[in-house]
Amino acid sequence: MLFVGTIAVLHPALPDRSFSDSENRVLEALPPFSLSSLLSGKFASRYEKYVADQFAFRDVWIGLKTDADRAMGRTDSNGVYLGKDGYLIAAFAPPAEGEAEEKVAAIHSFDRATPGVRKYMMLAPTAAAVHRDKLPAFAPAGDELAYMERIRKLLSPNIRFVDVYPALYAERERPVYYKTDHHWTMQGAYAAYRELCKEMGMIPKDEEDFRVRQVTNAFYGSLYSKSGFRHMQPDSISLYLPKEKTDYTVEYADEGHTTHSLYAMERLERKDKYQVFLGGNYALIRIMASRPTGGKLLVVKDSYANSLIPFLTGHFSEIYIVDLRYFDGSLTRLVEQHDIRDVLIVYNIHTFFEDPSIKYLKEE
Fold this sequence. Notes:
There is one protein chain. 32% of the residues lie in helices and 20% in strands. It is α/β, with parallel strands linked by helices. It has an 8-stranded mixed sheet.
């Protein structure tokens, strides 16, 4: 009773928070009251979420809970496994029946609407596949590779499948994935870039052509936030900067904003430091090189592509980057309007099945 009474007093006394840095998400705000929302049940539902999010010392309780779980030998929390060598690894949930066929059908629809355009599909595995040996014993992490192979077989021969798993697996002793985040590192993206060059007939730049610069060693990523596991070593983020300097103009279409850098260094001061790559996810970004070196490329992507794209800028004069989660235009019209001859679809296997926006590729 003392505990409940103390929390009841503290809840209205402490100011509400709009954002949780540790969970990296927006917290529920106090819902507006109305008689209709009360009678419909909406107010009670939202108020329950509000109290759960604004609970006094919420972050402390989450930390205590996961610490207790770890002390009792539990190695999973909220769909994230605590693996060997400090790796947090998200489990892969198999997609619903027919999900693979439906999304490949949308890709084929876009392919038919843009004849004569070369297309490439890169499905990136996550650490659950490449670092399977670091998972706890008997962890049911799912079979990413089986579903990647299924997508490859479903794709039309017009769309070349870029298999990056062997390259990433060969480099697994190097830091190709972050330990606290679900993304690959820029070193992992470089391994994928070399495989893509083979498929596209391009000569990749050697690793010696880049200057590797560590820009932070205090990165706690998405899996750290999602799991609630604490007392983890933070990740570092390193950038591959070409020794041969080229100037770029980076246009953020919907924001009306232009920069001359592929990296948003100011984002390193925020919780989600992975946003240093292109500033995060936007509906449409256009990158133009000051020294034209090739044709035009359209990248349809999730956030995995953000650390891959800097390697591609040395091979194309213009790169158009579309995130279908925010883009509401016509990709076919974009391809025709800018005379784009190459299209690269880049997703990690989790997002490919979880994100419904991929179906927007379908042309009516």
